[in-house]
Amino acid sequence: MALGLLGGGGSILAVPILVYALGFGAKEAIAVSLAVVGLTSLLAAAEHWREGHVRFRLALVFGLVTAVGAYLGAYLAGFVDGSFQLSLFAVAMLTAAIFMYRNGRSEDHEKRDHSGERVMGILARFALPGIGVGTLTGLVGVGGGFLIVPSLVLLGGIPMEAAIGTSLLVIAMNSFAGLAGYLGEATFPLGLVSLFSALAVAGTFAGTFLVRFVPGGALKRWFAVLLVLMALFILYENWHVIL
Description:
This protein has 243 residues and is an all-alpha fold. 78% of the residues lie in helices and 0% in strands. It is built from eleven helices and no strands.
């Protein structure tokens, strides 16, 4: 539902659930979350495409750049332990909360027409943000929607609905590239992953339907509060890494 409503937030909820409710190790939880979020984002992007809310040129350029970063981040994850990854994940959650809260307070930005823009022009604006978001995805398992949506709005100058739909396609590319980097490094039960994915897909379609009825600003602010609480819990559980 978070993915469908907000264009991000799925993996930020998935990783803590997989670790603290289902008992996965950190690396396995990150790999599973990338698989689940990648699949659900792709299906949700298809639904947004039907509504005309996906900017394919922006999504493909931004998505390819983030995919490179995601694979690099997954490679770097092999050099750090799970507790460090979870602590870094909690910091990413706090960052996400700031972006969500600020984005929930104001969504009025300059709109631009990208129909005639060249690929290199888009790449010049999104290269650095894309590499950064992708690396974070591969390293700690966040899909990056909380950074991708503001980037599309602020740098791309597209409306919020289009940013949400476009971000879902970028997240899918980002997540699958990160998952590829974990293959052979993390194992997980396919049955549980399939069930989790099926439920997540159902929730995503529900969120995509509800996005037209739910006030986005208030929802983002409350979601930001939830992220802060979850981040503080994860930091508490991994305090030995910080100290």
